[in-house]
Amino acid sequence: MADWYTTFANSGFGTTLTKQLGLPRPAVLRRYEPGQPLLPGPVVVGSAGKGRLRDAVTAVLRDAGVTVQSPATADGATDGERLGAVVLDATGLAGPGDLASAHDFLAPAIKRLRPSGRVLVLADPPSDADSPAQAAARQAVDGLVRSIAKELRGGATANAVFVPEGAEASLAGPLRFFLSGRSAYVDGQLLTLSPADVPTGEDDDRPLAGKVAVVTGAARGIGASIARVLARDGAHVVAVDIPAAGESLAAVANEIGGTAFQLDITAPDAASRLIEHLRERHGGVDVVVHNAGITRDKLLVNMDAARWNSVMAVNLQAQLDITQALLDDADVLKPDARIVCVSSQSGIAGNRGQTNYAASKAGVIGMVRAWAPEFAARNATINAVAPGFIVTEMTAKMPVGTREIGSRINSLQQGGLPVDVAETIAWLSQPGSAGVNGQTVRVCGQSMLGA
Question: What residues does the Ketoreductase domain cover (predicted)?
Answer without folding.
Answer: 211-393
